[in-house]
């Protein structure tokens, strides 16, 4: 994998999201005429977000030489559901996208536990060395967390205002994930591996 500066990856991942938020807030409550159609702030922000995210993902792939399965799945769903929202001028499709992403991740992690093939460990073991039991516990917790996030997203977009959902998506979800990781600090510590351990025993 190619080496890049530490700030590049976070900038490429957070930049499109913050741009979506900025465009939405700038045009909130207004209608913009594009190509003979009237678009609200949410659809306009989505129209800008989709190609920007695709470009950021392409740049990251060119710089690092790799993309995670999560990034690829996210990009595909963003293009599909963002495109449907813009095409049909209906924000509901894009609001449903996080639900489907989190459900997909929860299912993948759940299947990996049932199959006793910890895919999370395969992907992140170099960055987070833990024993097998630690990875099993983390995978179960993450599957449940993703399921809870899917439910939370459905509740927010179906019962709250569009602005509330944008705040939730932009700041709420990342904060929840951050708190989740911090809450698992004890797990990371208790199951951490020495550099010379192979992780086959708990």
UniProtKB/TrEMBL annotation:
Keyword Cell inner membrane: yes
Principal location: membrane
Domain of life: Bacteria
InterPro entries membership: YciB
TM spans (from-to): 7-27, 39-59, 71-88, 100-119, 140-160, 166-187
Record's function text: Plays a role in cell envelope biogenesis, maintenance of cell envelope integrity and membrane homeostasis.
UniProt protein name: Inner membrane-spanning protein YciB
Gene encoding the protein: yciB
């Amino acid at each position: 994998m190619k080496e890049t500066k530490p700030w590049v990856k976070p900038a490429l991942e957070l930049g499109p999201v913050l741009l979506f938020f900025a465009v939405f807030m700038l045009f909130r409550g207004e209608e913009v005429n594009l190509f003979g159609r009237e678009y609200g702030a949410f659809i306009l922000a989505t129209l800008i977000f989709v190609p920007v995210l695709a470009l950021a993902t392409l740049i990251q792939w060119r710089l690092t030489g790799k993309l995670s399965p999560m990034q690829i799945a996210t990009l595909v769903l963003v293009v599909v559901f963002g495109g449907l929202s813009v095409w049909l001028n209906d924000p509901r499709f894009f609001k449903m996208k996080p639900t489907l992403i989190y459900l997909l991740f929860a299912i993948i992690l759940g299947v990996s536990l049932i199959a006793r093939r910890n895919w999370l460990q395969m992907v992140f073991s170099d960055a987070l060395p833990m024993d097998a039991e630690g990875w099993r516990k983390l995978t179960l917790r993450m599957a449940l967390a993703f399921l809870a996030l899917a439910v939370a997203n459905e509740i927010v977009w179906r019962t709250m205002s569009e602005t509330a959902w944008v705040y939730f998506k932009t700041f709420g979800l990342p904060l929840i994930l951050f708190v989740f990781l911090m809450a698992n600090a004890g797990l990371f510590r208790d199951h951490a591996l020495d550099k010379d351990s192979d992780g086959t025993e708990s």
